[in-house]
From TrEMBL:
It comes from the Bacteria. This is Uncharacterized protein.
Length: 82
């Protein structure tokens, strides 16, 4: 398969709180840090420990510093690429 454009690819998601709209507030799945089916972000790209994300709810784009770029397993817990 040819590589797809990584911009706003529905197959690349990250479960990170949006700093703009906080749409996870009050969601049971998110509070238990499960991979919620509603509150995920488009993973536009990643550079080291930095994730470039776009919120589905408010289309806000921001950079999230994970702080654990070297530990791959933690990074994969937050993101999932299909
Ligand atoms: Zn948002
Ligand atoms: Zn949720």
């Amino acid at each position: 398969m040819l590589p797809r454009d990584p911009q706003a690819d529905i197959g690349r998601r990250a479960w990170v709180a949006c700093p703009n709209c906080d749409d996870r507030r009050g969601c049971g799945d998110c509070e238990e840090r499960r991979t919620c089916s509603r509150h995920w972000r488009y993973l536009l790209s990643s550079t080291g420990s930095l994730l470039h994300l776009q919120c589905r709810s408010c289309t806000h784009i921001w950079t999230h510093e994970t702080g654990f770029g070297a530990t791959r397993s933690l990074w994969q817990r937050m993101t999932r690429a299909w």
